[in-house]
Specification:
Layout (H helix, E strand, L loop, with lengths): L1 H11 L2 H19 L6 H29 L3 H39 L1
Helix pairs in contact: 2-3
Length: about 110
C-alpha cells in the first residue's frame, strides 16, 4: 500500500512524462536538423523507437526508485498509527463501559 501510494504520487507528478516528452522533441529536432541524411521513414522509425526506449528507461527508473525506497520509517509510522487507533478504540470502549456502570449504579440506587 505504501509503495503503491509512493509510485502513484511519483507517476502523477509528471516528471516521467516530462522526461519522455523532452526526449521525443530532442529526437525530432535531431532528425529535422539532419534531414538530408535520413529518409522520412527512417525518421519516423527513429522517433518512435527512441520514444519507446525512453518509456522503457522511465519504467526501469521507476522500478529502481521503488526498489530503493526505504520502508522502515513508513512501517513505524503505520504501526504507531495502528496502535494509536487501537488505543483510542479501547479508551472509547472503556468510557462506554464506565458510563454504563454509572447508569446501572444509579438505576440500582433508585430502586
Amino acid at each position: 500500500m505504501i509503495i503503491e501510494k509512493f509510485s502513484q504520487n511519483l507517476i502523477n507528478s509528471g516528471i516521467f512524462k516530462l522526461y519522455i516528452a523532452t526526449g521525443f522533441f530532442a529526437t525530432v529536432i535531431f532528425f529535422v536538423l539532419n534531414a538530408d541524411l535520413f529518409t522520412p521513414l527512417e525518421m519516423l522509425f527513429g522517433i518512435v523507437g527512441v520514444t519507446i526506449i525512453l518509456k522503457g528507461v522511465t519504467n526501469m527508473m521507476l522500478s529502481m526508485l521503488i526498489l530503493l525506497f526505504n520502508l522502515d520509517k513508513k512501517k513505524e509510522e503505520i504501526d504507531i498509527k495502528y496502535h494509536e487507533d487501537k488505543i483510542q478504540a479501547m479508551l472509547a470502549e472503556l468510557g462506554v463501559q464506565d458510563a454504563q456502570s454509572q447508569v446501572d449504579k444509579q438505576n440500582s440506587n433508585e430502586k
